[in-house]
């Protein structure tokens, strides 16, 4: 390839690859804001390549973004050790409603549940796993990106799969069943129907909340259908019709948004077994809701 020295060409290449680069950084970091910072850093480095011959532009940019994400994740892991309460990924929602096929394709590699499980991995293990299992990279490309041997990268992926894949959901739930359960639960929560909410929750349902030390949340998961149903019932008693719930695509699958006085108060990522709700991950940290709150309405 001839050296690229036209700024318009540089811009066009980066713009075309930006969604992929952001997707890598977001999955690595679980934070939309930090992902944007990484992509911006990569852009600055990319601009400095004007006049330099690069054989494979996409591979070069993927490598830069991956390694920047690894460096940032190392620092983030230290910070998250001192995080107040439970740390959950920042939720994202698409600009337009995805088709059922698109949501089914994304749910296994961008859902809040999946991103939370990735937190178990080392930064390099997370990068190797995502490159191989989500982005279908060859071990040769992974090795070049991480500066390791192919054998070492195979080991990283193998260990990551052992930690992650066995924890993935045991049920493949039809989208229509998932949507039906969410709709019924949202309606029951809206009218404060404790019995109906309780009937839609598995006996061992688990609720995890992230308040970031800025708003009240739980230091440890809340477990049990009665306790979780009482939590939503208490919200209804406190706010009445000032609290509104609606469904929306969140991280590749349908979730619930709760607005209080017209302001986004929480995002509920919900896992079901097709019959009942088995887990909720509730993002209440205002800093992690700011981007969504600016574009979503009740």
TrEMBL record:
Transmembrane region(s): none
Pfam families for the chain: Sigma70_r2 (PF04542), Sigma70_r4_2 (PF08281)
A GO biological-process term: DNA-templated transcription initiation
Family annotation (SUPFAM superfamilies): NTF2-like (SSF54427), Sigma2 domain of RNA polymerase sigma factors (SSF88946), Sigma3 and sigma4 domains of RNA polymerase sigma factors (SSF88659)
Domain RNA polymerase sigma factor 70 region 4 type: 113-163
GO molecular function list: DNA binding; sigma factor activity
Superkingdom, taxonomy of origin: Bacteria
Residues of the RNA polymerase sigma-70 region domain: 15-77
Quaternary assembly: Interacts transiently with the RNA polymerase catalytic core formed by RpoA, RpoB, RpoC and RpoZ (2 alpha, 1 beta, 1 beta' and 1 omega subunit) to form the RNA polymerase holoenzyme that can initiate transcription.
UniProt xrefs under NCBIfam families: PRK09636.1, sigma70-ECF, SigX4
The protein's name in its UniProt record: ECF RNA polymerase sigma factor SigJ
Species for this entry: Variovorax paradoxus
Lineage of source species: Bacteria, Pseudomonadati, Pseudomonadota, Betaproteobacteria, Burkholderiales
């Amino acid at each position: 390839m001839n050296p690229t020295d036209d700024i318009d060409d540089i811009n066009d290449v980066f713009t075309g690859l930006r969604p992929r680069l952001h997707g890598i950084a977001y999955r690595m970091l679980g934070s939309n804001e930090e992902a944007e910072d990484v992509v911006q850093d990569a852009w600055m480095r990319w601009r400095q390549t004007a006049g330099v011959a690069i054989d494979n532009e996409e591979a070069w940019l993927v490598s830069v973004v991956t390694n920047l994400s690894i460096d940032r994740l190392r620092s983030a892991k230290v910070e998250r050790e001192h995080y107040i309460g439970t740390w959950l990924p920042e939720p994202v929602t698409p600009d337009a409603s995805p088709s059922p096929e698109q949501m089914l394709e994304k749910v296994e590699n961008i859902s809040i549940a999946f991103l939370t499980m990735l937190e178990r991995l080392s930064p390099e293990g997370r990068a190797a796993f995502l490159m191989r299992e989500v982005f279908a990279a060859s071990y040769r490309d992974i090795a070049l990106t991480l500066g390791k041997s192919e054998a070492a990268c195979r080991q990283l992926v193998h260990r990551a799969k052992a930690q992650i894949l066995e924890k993935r959901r045991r049920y493949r739930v039809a989208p229509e069943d998932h949507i039906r359960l969410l709709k019924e639960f949202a309606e029951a929560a809206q009218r404060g129907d404790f019995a109906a909410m309780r009937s839609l929750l598995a006996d061992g349902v688990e609720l995890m909340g992230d308040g970031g030390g800025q708003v009240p949340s739980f230091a440890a998961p809340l477990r049990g259908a009665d306790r979780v149903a009482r939590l939503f019932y208490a919200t209804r008693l406190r706010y009445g019709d000032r609290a509104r719930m609606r469904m929306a695509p969140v991280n590749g699958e349908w979730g619930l948004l709760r607005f209080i006085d017209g302001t986004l108060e929480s995002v509920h990522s919900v896992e079901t077994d097709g019959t009942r709700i088995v887990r909720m991950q509730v993002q209440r940290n205002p800093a992690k809701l700011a981007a969504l709150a600016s574009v979503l309405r009740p």
